[in-house]
Design a protein that fits this description.
The structure holds 2 protein chains of 2 kinds.
Chain A lengths: L4 E3 L2 E4 L5 E6 L6 E7 L6 E7 L2 E5 L7 E4 L6 E5 L8 E8 L8 E2 L3 E5 L1
Parallel strand pairs in A: 2-11
Antiparallel strand pairs in A: 1-3, 3-8, 4-5, 4-9, 5-6, 7-8, 9-10, 9-11
Chain B lengths: L3 E2 L4 E5 L4 E7 L6 E7 L6 E7 L4 E4 L2 E6 L4 E6 L8 E8 L8 E2 L3 E6 L1
Parallel strand pairs in B: 2-11
Antiparallel strand pairs in B: 1-3, 3-8, 4-5, 4-9, 6-7, 7-8, 9-10, 9-11
Classes of the chains: A mainly beta, B mainly beta.
Chain lengths: 114, 113
């Protein structure tokens, strides 16, 4: 297993366009998390899945954001009608349900909205 | 509301000396704490953890101290090495809940050769 994989690594889009990011977690991990990190800040929780069920969503996740994890494997995060304020690093992480070592993060997808 | 705070955005230390990174939290429900290390263009990687039933945990050159009454934890790196230069995040969770971690804003450590 090569760890948590995120694609694309970088995405530049025009304001108003839709974008979709993909995350492939470590195969035996049943939990998958999405975080967002902006400049000078730590990762901020967006949402998490246990298997295919989305169990919690942050208030940061507006109606323009949607995440899915079909069949409890890979996950997608879609942002509709992007705004400049959406520019950030989007981090995906996965873990077992009980994990004393926390999450394994991917390298992230950097979104720039112009 | 910033539940986990790292008040020092940056720290420079001479190689071989001790690096001390600090973290404060406000939520008394937090009972498990992690430190992550992040290099540029990579995701954060787990460094060391501590449960609230302990006040110290050691792993090689890294030691984390927890002061529950002060809601404060610190990471000590001894001796510091140039390869330790990175951004360090502390993170906290209430393990009776979701194992969702709340992260601090990070401290950029630079170890000078």
């Amino acid at each position: 297993d090569t760890g948590v994989s995120q694609n694309p690594r970088h995405k530049i889009t025009k304001r108003g366009q839709n974008v979709t990011f993909r995350c492939d977690p470590i195969s035996e991990h049943n939990r998958l998390y999405w975080y967002r990190q902006t400049l000078g800040q730590g990762p901020e929780f967006l949402t998490y899945f246990q298997n295919e069920a989305q169990l919690e969503k942050s208030r940061l996740l507006s109606d323009r954001f949607s995440a899915e994890r079909p069949k409890g494997s890979f996950s997608t995060l879609e942002i509709q009608r992007t705004e400049q304020g959406d520019s950030a690093m989007y981090l995906c992480a996965s873990s077992l349900e009980v994990s004393p070592t926390g999450y394994t993060f991917g390298s992230g997808t950097r979104l720039t909205v112009v | 509301d910033q539940q986990v705070k790292q008040n020092s955005p940056s720290l420079s230390v001479q190689e071989g000396r001790i690096s001390i990174l600090n973290c404060d939290y406000t939520n008394s429900m937090f009972d498990y704490f992690l430190w992550y290390k992040k290099y540029p263009a990579e995701g954060p990687t787990f460094l060391i953890s501590i449960s609230s039933i302990k006040d110290k945990n050691e792993d090689g050159r890294f030691t984390v101290f927890l002061n529950k009454s002060a809601k404060h934890l610190s990471l000590h790196i001894v001796p510091s090495q140039p390869g330790d230069s990175a951004v360090y995040f502390c993170a906290a969770s209430a393990t009776s809940g979701t194992y969702k971690y709340i992260f601090g804003t990070g401290t950029r450590l630079k170890v000078l050769a």
